[in-house]
Amino acid sequence: SGSLHKWITALLSNRQQIVKIGSAISNPAPVNSSVPQGSILGPTLFILYINDLCNHLISNCILFVDDVKLFNTTNNATVLQSDLDYVSEWSNIWQLQISTNKCSVLHIGKK
């Protein structure tokens, strides 16, 4: 409700986008989510947006800009799967798309 909140709300509200290919320009379309790409404030706002994610996970979690790393020392894959299920549910609620082609599992152990 303060000045900063009003400023951020104004920055993220009522935005539109257009697409330009060659000399052709599309009609404006509303932007309903995301932070402005290329802005200095964008990464900070995104970190604030996803900051609560790690609080609900069993695994260790590291956030850096738009990357999330989960790691755990366990012999029980159910723990990691539970966290992955939560991340999937959380991302659906907050309308964040996970780039599954950038996701991987690194298993270090005897098996």
From TrEMBL:
State the InterPro entries in the record.
DNA/RNA_pol_sf, RT_dom
Top-level taxon in the UniProt lineage? Eukaryota
Q: Which residues form the Reverse transcriptase domain?
A: 1-111
Q: Which residues form a coiled coil?
A: none
- Read off the PANTHER family from this record: REVERSE TRANSCRIPTASE DOMAIN-CONTAINING PROTEIN
- What is the name of the protein in this document? Reverse transcriptase domain-containing protein
Taxonomic lineage of this organism? Eukaryota, Metazoa, Chordata, Craniata, Vertebrata
